[in-house]
Structures are given as structure tokens and as C-alpha cells.
Amino acid sequence: MQYHPAVAQANVPRPGGTLFVRDFSEAFKPGLLDPASGASVFVSEQIFDGLVRLDNKLNVMPQLAEYWSIADDGTKFVFYLREGVRFHDGSKLTAQDVKFSFERLIRAETRSPFREYFIAKVVGAREFVEGRASDVSGFRAPAKNIFEIDWQGPYVSALYLLSMSFCQVLPRELVLSQGKDFFMKPVGTGPFQFDSWIRSPRLDIVGVRLERNGAYFAKKALLDFLEYSPYFTEDDFVKREIDIMPFVSDREAKAGGRILDGGLQNITFLMMSCQIPPLDRPSIRKALAFAIDKESLARAVQDGEFIRRTTNNYIPAKWPGFFPRDSAEEYDPERARQILEENGFLTEKKFPDLVLFLPAPKSELNLRFAGELESELAKAGISLTVSYFKSLRDIKDVRLPFLARIDWGMDFPDPEGIIAPLFRSRGEINLANARYSSQRLDRLLEEAETEPSLSRRNDLFRQMEEVLGDDLPAIPLYASEQRIAVQPYVRNVLIPSLGFSYLDVRNIWLDKKGRQP
Questions:
Q1: pTM for this prediction
Q2: Quick one: pLDDT band at residue 326, thresholds 50, 70, 90?
């Protein structure tokens, strides 16, 4: 192989420059930079750090914690913080900052959608949120560089949970002194630090400009600045005024953009009201599964930002070590009609109209979805009326038989993040939708929550898939993978397994002097 100096030089990372990014969010405001809110994850990932992080293969890696130990019974985790880590204002990171951040996460006034993961599992957390204790006894800081967590039972998924953006660490004293104003100029330990807000001509905040943190404790970013706004447009990309954005149309590819896809798949389910006749019968729910052409439905909702592939799985097929189901009800409208007739419908009496609930707003995608599903179910003699919900709680008290489309992404990378909220008998989303109950699934899930062996744990989740496949409280329709457009001069962009929001910007550099169209 010959050595080509020009090519070698082109592949040498060049420091400097500003990266302009738009992600999959549709709105932006300063309060969304609060990691506990779960919004603007892409930005909070640049400003803040957690105890641990995940690499692109979902391996747990050190971050603020240099190392950790786990008690033999799996109930106590001890984290040893790195020495010399400083927040962007120069103050030193201590275990008290970590304790404060986790207690803040579960406080009612923080309104974090992720607080229940800790309230239900950490020793003393419920007493704290109910006002019966001044702090969480299971969150301890016995030394400046040591933070401990006591779980109520063995928790094999704990490190995955702690790697999420909502578990990032804030500076205690600064948050206490500034209150809500803290997020007008947020301070973390991350590879980038707040520089300024991007404002519209009317001075509305529409994005944020971040500056490279030259004192970062780990690998430092190559870029000087990062500018983020969900209001950057495709025209901006075509004119090369921004560098990365969700793929919207072929205009981006024709303009020279590289199109990348990846990330763990989010799954779209059609939940069914399992306690309301006639959908309280598994046979009727199976009839609906036979009546739905998943391939046609997935084609109807294809758009640029996502690749949608049909699935028969409740757990993403890409989950490491997990083997997807290889069989399910196939599209067969005649079989659907036969089952309905065997249950006394169509010939003896009309099948009751179903309400189809879709997530607001009334978008073109929702209209395409509703139109295709209505057409398919009509072939089996089933009629739909369409309604919209802003929150899943909006349909909690509905007493008519209904279907609800839920586009579900895991709160943290573990199958429990799907099964527990959607299908556990007392799961929050289940109670608001399917109201499905299975003692066997509950037992399997309870066993999986404390099972230390990952292979055994995956086997338990495969058994849960079998239970759900038999009972069919929801029909898995399709899985969605993200697609992004990247300018040809932007190097080292890789969509992480967790999705674009967790993009490691530190490795990205701009080759604007190199080869490009």
C-alpha cells in the first residue's frame, strides 16, 4: 500500500471551528436545559456529566465516578469520584453535589418524569418525597469523593439507569443560591460550557451557543463552539449554514449531505382497552392483529427523519443478547372476520365502533396513519372514530372500547423500561390505557428486576414476550430508527446506540479545507 501524504493530512483532525446542529426537538426554552426534565438531552449532554456513561456498544464506562463497587447482595453501590473535577465556574465537584442532584431529581417541585424509578427503589426515597424525612437515607456522601446508593433490593439495571441524562450532576451551592435563574446560565462539568443564547429578531430565545471547556477532565472537544437550535431549517442546510440536522428530504442529499441512520429502535404500539368489551377477549384482540397490514401501515407513515420497519417484538430487536420473536399473527383479513363471526359479531350483531386515540397534534402523519388503519380494519367489518390526546392520562377514564397509538422510547436502555410502564398490572401507562393484568408477567418482571445474570435476565424477558404474544394487550406495529443529514466536511459523526441526543460531539471536527464538493 502506497502512502499518500495529502490523504493522510486530510484525515488528521483539525481543532477549531463552530458546529451548527439541529436535532429532533421541535421547541426550545431555557428551562428545558434542566437534565431532570428529560428535554433537550442533546444540549444537557454537552453541559453536564453523570456518574457513569454508556459507550456505543452500551457498555458502562466511568465518567464523574472513576470507579465503583457493588455489594455482594447487589443492594449497595459505592462510587468513587475523580479527583480534581471542577464545574465551569471553577468550584470543585464533591459527593454533596451528587447527593443534592439525586434528591432534587425526585422532589415533587422538580416535576421530573423519571422520579419514580428512584422513589420506588432507593431506601428512604418515599419517606423523603412524602415529607417524613429531611433527606434520602439511601443517598449518602460519607466523604468528599464518595457517594453511596442503597437500593431496596438487588438492582441489576442500576448502572444503565444512572447513565441517563436525567441523572447528571449539578453544582449544589449555585443551584440553591440562584434557583430557577440557574438555567439562564447553566453550569456543569461537561465538555462544553454555556456561552450565550441564540435569539430571534424579536429577542425570543431560539437556541444556545456553547464554548469548548478547555479544563475538561477527560478527552477535550476539538471544536471551539457548538450552536444548537431546533429552528434551523433545511434551507440553512442546503446553503451550508448549518452542519447536522434530521433528514427531511432528498434536497439534503442532493446538496452533498451524507445520510446516516442508527440508534436503538423506538417501537410504535397499538394499545387496546383490555378491560372494556369486546376487547377484553384475547381472541378479539388477535382478530384485530390479523386485520392489520403492518407493511402498508409502515409505508403510510414513512418520513425522512425515521426509517420505519415492521416488527413483532415488544422489546427492540437490536437489544444486545436478545433474540426477537420469529412468529406472530400475519395479515389475514379473512381470518380476522372468521374470528369475529365465531365470537358472534358481523352476522349476528355489528361489531361496536372503536375509538382510535392518537397523540396530538392533528398532523399529516397522524392523518395518514388513521386513514390507513381505518381502511384495513374496515375490511374486517370494524369501524373507527378518531380522537387526540395531549397526555395519556386524558384517556384514563374512557369507558368505550378504544385503541391508542403509543410511540415508545425507553427511558433508559433496559427492557424493563418498556415492559414495566406499559404492561405491568400497576404500570402507569398500562393503567391509563390497556388496563391489562397478568400475574405471570408481573412475577417474571419482579424476578427480572433482581436477577444478576444478564443471560438469565434476557431469558425472562423472552418469556414475557411470549406472554404478551399470547395475551396481545398491544400490537407492536413498527420500529423507528433516526436518520440525519451531515455536511461532507463534518468528520467522525456516529449516531450512538442510544440515539442522536447522546452524540459525542468531542470527536467531531470540521474538514472545511479538505476535499468536498
A1: 0.86
A2: low
